[in-house]
Every structure is written in C-alpha cells, then in structure tokens.
Amino acid sequence: MSKNTLIKAGILGMIAVLGGAFGAHALKEILSPEHLASFNTGVRYQMIHAVVLICLFLLGTKFEMKQFKIATTLIFWGVILFSGSIYILTLKNIIGLEALKFAGPITPIGGLLIITGWVFIVLGALKIER
C-alpha cells in the first residue's frame, strides 16, 4: 500500500474536521436543523472513512492484498461523491446556485462505492491465511 493512501486519509480527515467546525459554528444559524443534520452526516461518513483508509494502509503493510487496494480506491472516491454531494446539496441555497441540484443522484452512487469498498475488505480478509 502506498503512502498516497495515508495522504488521502489525511486530506479527508482534515476536510472533515474543517467541515465539522464550519457546520457547528458558521452553518448552525443559517441552515435548517434538517439541512444541518444532513451536512453532519456527510462530515461523519467522511471522518469514519478517513480512519478506515488509515486502517487499510496498515493492513496493506502486512498483507499485500489487491482487494485492500481496490477497497481503498472505492472508499476514497465513494466518500468524495457521497459526502461531496451532500455538502453541495446542503449549501446550494446559501451559494445561490439552484443548478447544483444535479448532485442529488450522485449521493447514492457514492454510497454504493463505499459499500463495494467494504465488500472488498471482506474479500481481502477471506484470503488472509493464518
């Protein structure tokens, strides 16, 4: 597993912390409770999966499984699409760009990539020999 996995994890984690602070302080007074909850869902999934990428990096140092590499790619891009589209949908009214509603169908695609990444973690785990 390459150091790029750690870099991706660090970037996702950093953006999640910034997003959480932004939501807690700047967006709290602007967004409806439903929109703020949605924004926080994006932040939560992003942070959880940043940690998952760190775990995949560590697993990759011990077990050279192509399934873990595939999982890393799927989860990274899944988070970008899932959380990113939630951020866009939540902030489109504030930004004033109703045209950003195109992001709605992207959220489940990101979720499907994340789920598929987890499937590849399971497949990799099944190949580990004691």
Written account of the structure:
This protein is an all-alpha fold and 130 residues long. The chain has one domain (3-127). 81% of the residues lie in helices and 0% in strands. The protein has helices at residues 3-25, 33-62, 66-95, 106-127. Helix 2 (33-62) runs antiparallel to helix 3 (66-95) and helix 3 (66-95) runs antiparallel to helix 4 (106-127). It starts with a helix and ends with a helix.
Show unreliable segments. Answer: none
> Per the principal axes of the C-alpha atoms, what is the gross shape?
elongated
Strand content: under 5%
As a percent range, the share of helical residues equals: over 70%
Q: Would you list the SSEs in sequence order as H and E?
A: HHHH
* Biggest sheet record: none
What class would the helix/strand composition place it in?
Answer: mainly alpha
Query: Could you tell me the radius of gyration in angstroms?
Result: 16 Å
How many helical elements? 4
Instruction: Tell me, rounded to a whole number, the average pLDDT.
Output: 91
* Total of domains: 1
Distance between the termini: 20 Å
Q: How many β strands by DSSP?
A: 0
